[in-house]
Structures
1.
Amino acid sequence: LSEIKLFIALIHYPVINKAGEVITSAITGIDLHDIARLSKTYGIKRFFVVTPLKDQAELVKRLTEHWVTGAGASYNPDRKKALELIRVAKDYSNVVSEVRKFAGMTPETVVTCANKRNDAIGYPEFKQKLKNGRPYILNFGTAWGLSGEWIDNADYVLEPVYGITGYNHLSVRSAASIIIDRLLHDN
Amino acid sequence: LSEIKLFIALIHYPVINKAGEVITSAITGIDLHDIARLSKTYGIKRFFVVTPLKDQAELVKRLTEHWVTGAGASYNPDRKKALELIRVAKDYSNVVSEVRKFAGMTPETVVTCANKRNDAIGYPEFKQKLKNGRPYILNFGTAWGLSGEWIDNADYVLEPVYGITGYNHLSVRSAASIIIDRLLHDN
């Protein structure tokens, strides 16, 4: 278990809007809290928040500082332990190089996608890969999801979370929670 | 699968605050959206939001009406399909009687709890119970969780979601997502 090197990146660009256009989405505070708490629960070492916008990066820093070193740290130490896993990155290449430094090996990128694709890998298959000691960065898209080009460029596409009804519109908070539990629970 | 009769109730009273005191918590809009979308994905027929406060019940009604019959319905029909599963209840006895009417049988109450208890039942065990055709209402607590008395009075207590680190402070949105996936995925 100590060999598992899974990292999370929450992507705010390039993602698509309702019309399918590539946009930069806004930071949502609750995404940071929920996914940081999830990361802490499952032993994920870093949760990267990726945005090219300077003011949005500042917002993430202010929010995390409040909980990690500010008034929030003594008010809620459990929240501090979660939010200190957050790192802001203006560019995905920064995420890759931080993970490379942290894990001592070049990571592979795994994306999540709400649409069915023939080249997608399943949860048991990726769970098996995680045991090979290689670092993986699991990308989650905000807004209406990661851009098609981003998905095509990834090393692996993970199967969508199918519930049982064919309806497939979970929040990124719910999808991340379910996916991380499927990958890391009972290892 | 068609026999499974699982309902969700999100409880705002009686829950505890950080100091362990019994309180009524405020409605959080994002809880309603995330858990409604989760419910729709996994075929849950009703998502009950339980609050004794009249103005808070009104807030839930306004929010759901916006998406179910108001401007939101045409803007985002997928959201409508999720939020129309929401029912507001001022009292848990209303939830029980609505489920009894809906399912034609008296439901049992299953609570979630972040603390370890000797009488808790595991996920495979509850998954098995779900196949017996009886209706179950799964209760989630807001704030710092359901009151001790509420938990003691339930028919079953479900095991906490253990990640892998001992840290156990997921948001109710994450916990509900993981628990529902564990119970209903791959049935």
2.
Amino acid sequence: MSQSGTDLLLDLDAADRGKLRLRLEGALREAIRSGRLPGGTHLPPTRALAQDLGISRGTVLQAYGQLVAEGWLSGKRGSGTVVAAPSNTGGSPVEQPEPLLVPWRFDLRPGFLDASSFPRLEWVRALRRALGEAPDDAFGYGNSQGQLALRTELASYLRRARGLEVAPRDLLVTAGFTQSLGLLARSLFAAGARRIAIEEPSWRFHRSILRAAGHELVPVDVDDHGAQVDQLETARDIGAVLLTPNRQHPTGVTLSADRRSRLLRWARGTGAIIIENDYDGEFRYDGHPIGSLQGLDPAVVAYAGTASKTLAPGVRLGWLTLPDSLRKPLIDAKRLTDWQTGGLDQLALAELLRTNAYDRHIRKMRLRYRRRRDTMVTTLAAANPRLRVSGASAGLNVLLPLPGGEVEADALAAAHAAGIGLGGVAADKYYETGRGAGLIIGFAAAPEHTFPSAVDALADVLASLDP
Amino acid sequence: MSQSGTDLLLDLDAADRGKLRLRLEGALREAIRSGRLPGGTHLPPTRALAQDLGISRGTVLQAYGQLVAEGWLSGKRGSGTVVAAPSNTGGSPVEQPEPLLVPWRFDLRPGFLDASSFPRLEWVRALRRALGEAPDDAFGYGNSQGQLALRTELASYLRRARGLEVAPRDLLVTAGFTQSLGLLARSLFAAGARRIAIEEPSWRFHRSILRAAGHELVPVDVDDHGAQVDQLETARDIGAVLLTPNRQHPTGVTLSADRRSRLLRWARGTGAIIIENDYDGEFRYDGHPIGSLQGLDPAVVAYAGTASKTLAPGVRLGWLTLPDSLRKPLIDAKRLTDWQTGGLDQLALAELLRTNAYDRHIRKMRLRYRRRRDTMVTTLAAANPRLRVSGASAGLNVLLPLPGGEVEADALAAAHAAGIGLGGVAADKYYETGRGAGLIIGFAAAPEHTFPSAVDALADVLASLDP
């Protein structure tokens, strides 16, 4: 859940601009090698590409120059830069070894998944089968709420796996949590809400979505028992609260049972809506699974789930339960936004759920993530006994609290210098009014073969850290 | 482009509610036969399903009862209605003949495509190949503007096929025209615009999208040369105008060359944005292709294209050119809306474009649609020489003007009684302030084997019409 934009070719994470030229070169080599940029293709002028990517023209000039020198590109005066024709003779670009494109040498960013874990084969198989059997209506202007077949499978899955109290008619299929939150924010605003409470700390991008819909934000502090519900009880005119009760992001804390009861009582009493962001609830390693808030009172909770952590963020599929008061406004808002979520993706996901391939994939990944979690916790503890990670019993990242923004900045700089990508509580502005610092270390992004070295590299960095 | 919602199972077009029970039965039989509702599945309670579908509980009760009688379902007191277990003995549900589910016996609705025309094989093949070669970043939080590989292919296609003046950096990939228009409407509003001009007549749903973003609408009349640009010249404070210059919907008129020049001059002079909705520009049968307005002045035109008519509406893919003044606001708005369009669909479309499978599919469909157009125009002219269709030189529907709303209502009622679905200018509220009537007859929706009988059935209805 970094805020950096990622292109097909380039991840232009601001923190990583020092390596931009190398990564641009790698991306271009990869595109030429794979045939996406065939021989003879005119590359964009350096000025245009620089503007497109938001980087300096000098960086692009250097990258082009390097690739011309390597024979991937040819530059002719007056005709711009062109992809060199492939050749089967020795020394041709296609036979040169080239680095694989990875955003970081060691990718420990939170919110990202190892792309090679995406179940490509299963997805294509599910889509092919679903397309063969799909009723004609699946290709048309479909139900804005989502295809009934998908909602039926999702309802069954969510009851079983997440303890929801939900029927197909209570679900809205969306293009992911970003859209779910935007639809909620606009529907709540249209219904008169003006103030939405949000955990402090929280992911900055979500605050942007709520503000873009016109809301004022009210911070709710988080302690070891989760969000401090008593702060909601004393606040005025709160239309909704956005929470991560299963596993607070980024602290990893679970909302306590006592707070859950108080929270629901508060919502029932004030008419406020609880937005339950269950972004990675499928992954719990220790203790019992935590049921959803929605299952306790569907009328006041809008539960939001996503395929971003179970399949891949790029799939862009999410789901939202419909509290009665927002049912019609939310479906109408979805229709006005994009009519419906992509029909082919809906078909494929319904088929993955129907055949239990979705469950099997999650079980497989849960085992892998649990092993990674164990490796990371053990290795980091051994490297520097003064450091203690938190939030490791579930989810896809841990938090390593640090005493202040300066220590965090030093640690991030050292990590970046070692080629490690990861998140920072202060650097990524998780706190808006309060203060806090720490490293957010994801263990789902690195490819399987680089994960052990990534953890070792981080351990080296942290070994010399003196908090 | 009807406003009816379509579920996976049911098209609940309001005009067709008389046949709801039969269609619900057909949908359930189809779902059971295809295995989407396996034996033992508990069907939703009648009350819940009725509410879900927005129909009466009595209709659902009757449908369930019929299917129990037929052996598809079994109803047990206290345990609800359950899908009967399949059996291979004679008389089992799976061996009974059952009607195919079609929304109408003869589907001549505008805006819909024959779903069997969707290139399923090519799509799956493209996706499989693209997934095999996709860089890891394609599965992550990608570039909100759209994958560079897709924008590169789209730019090349749009320059070649639609005369656009566009580079990859000038394109935004969206989830279809609905989203493109919503993003534009919100970005223009944020930039201070409050009044948007729109053709009269126009599709009502687009007016809803603009109004939902806060805009006041200013109607611009349409005559035989297209939108009457002089009305824009005398209007005040117009932030943008939404037009269908290639083929006005629903009249089928093309905006004249003279009007195009005046329109661009007006936009340059006032700073207004022209939203060019090129919804079916790929399909022209007579005369030369009409170039885009965008190609004449990219700085004042936001060109919007879609795969809804070339592939299928359910795919939910569109694209938008970025006038300089709206470039950053539009990309930011897209990011806040759903971060990016579904990555797998982007990969597949890029691959279809790269291999020219997209062009081949369009050429094939253009031939088919031209034949259908010829059949329709000839048959209807022979049936009733007093009727004259217009807008037949391009696109996927024709307009049959009628002298008033009452004649239209009579014609629609007769068509519906004959099992024909089609659109009505008055019935579908294409005019907001003005008056006009006529049938909007689509020739892309009917399956190939029913199209000739659909046209014959319509000819029978129209033969007795005395306008």
